[in-house]
Every structure is written in structure tokens, then in C-alpha cells.
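Minutes, project check-in
Item: structure for the 270-residue chain
Input as provided by the requester:
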Amino acid sequence: MRVDFIKMHGLGNDFVVLDGCAQPLPEMTRTLAAALADRHTGIGCDQVIVLAPSTRANLAMRIFNPDGSESSACGNATRAVALLRGGTTSIETLGGMLTAVAGESDIAVDMGTPRFAWEDIPLAYPLDTLALPVAWEDLENPCAVNVGNPHAVFFVSDCDAVDLGRLGPLIEHDSLFPQGVNVNAAMVVSRNAIRLRVWERGTGLTRACGTGACATAVAAMRRGLTEREVNVTLPGGDLHIAWGTDDRITMTGPANEAFRGSFDPAEFGA
């Protein structure tokens, strides 16, 4: 049996999308996800996206990282899936229900409401999530927020100068974060603009992270550093983030299809 896939990306954050609504799929295991994601011996991607029918939404989406672990949400993948479906799409994820609207050039996603309670991040013990009293070398006092995934947001003077490739995994696996954490190094450029680099939990350095952009924008807004709408510039491009008075986050940005193909699951350990 061969399985069709669609290679897509959102600002360079790339995915192998398997549509279980259109074809039977093998069980997605850690081994299979890691094998497909491998850029040398597999198809190569930041995440493997598995779509399936849902009784609560238009479809369900599961997200697997290159290490085989499963993530609860992915903003860039949500835009990619919405591009495939077209129009308005409701999507069930482990992180909650999402709604995406595909326009002519960009896709807007209702990312839901952010969570700030220490147990919702989660942290190992109670701390003020607006400014955690912790530090890893020059990275200190992050804001913690859960937007479907847990994020630690560090505001720095120069995000490009941060050795995120070294510090990212140390913070991701720190015992303070029992489920791991995404690490964001952010620089506020103006009241309406942020530059951002992200170490993504289970993935590593990434060209773009939709939930990271949302978490960082909300953290900046909570601290009074920006207005309630900002442009977040990542290495792969820009996302527009708005945090409405109804407490819901809207993320707007592009998604693209790169190519389509198929594979034999038996060749990848399935």
C-alpha cells in the first residue's frame, strides 16, 4: 500500500500532510513519524500532520515532531490545512478547537484564548507567569503562556545574538517545565512590531512558529510593550497577531503547497 502525502509550509515551517479523510492511513507511531520527518533518509519536515474525520469539527489534526513526540497545536500547520480545504474550516486539535478562514493571499486562524495560570502552562510549581523569577545565563525572567502549546518568552535587546541552538534545549528540558516548553527570544522593535526566533519543543530551531508568534505577542501585550495588534517577523517571514477584547487571538499569514508524492509505509518501519 502506498500513502499519498502533501508537502506544505507556512513561512518555511514545513510539513508532511497525510489526509486520513481521503485515504486509509497506517497507525502513526513515534518511529514512523521520526522516519518520515528525517531530512536525510525520509521526506523531511518540521512536523508530520495527520488529518482524520471528526464528529466535532470539519476534521481533526494531529501533529508529530521529528523526534516522534506529539504536539498539541501548530499555527502554521493550521493555515496549511485551511489552504487545502479552502473557505472556513473548523479543526479539532489536542490543544482545542480552531477555526481558519482562507482568503485570496492569507489565512486567518482563530487560535482561541491564551492561558496564564502556572498549572495551565504547566510549571512544576507556582510562579508568577508574567515574569518567572528564573534565568539561564543572559536569558532571564521569561513570560510563560499556553496557546495550545507551552511557551517561555524572553524579551532581549538582540534576538539574533542569543545562542538559541545551545540554550533552547537546556530550557526546553528544564525540570521547571514537566511537559517541556517552546523557547522564544523576542525583540520589541516598536509598539506594533516584534522580531522573533524560536526553539520549538521536539523540533529545534525553526524558521517560523505560529503558536510562538501568538505567545510572544500576547506576552508583549501583557507587559504593556506593544499595542493589541502587532506584526511578528520570524526568519521565514511575517505573521500578524491580534488579541481581541473577547480574549481570542487571531493569527494571519500565508501558507503554501510545495509538492505531492507517495511512500510505502513498510520502507519507513510501519
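Outcome recorded: The radius of gyration is 18 Å.
No further action items on this chain.
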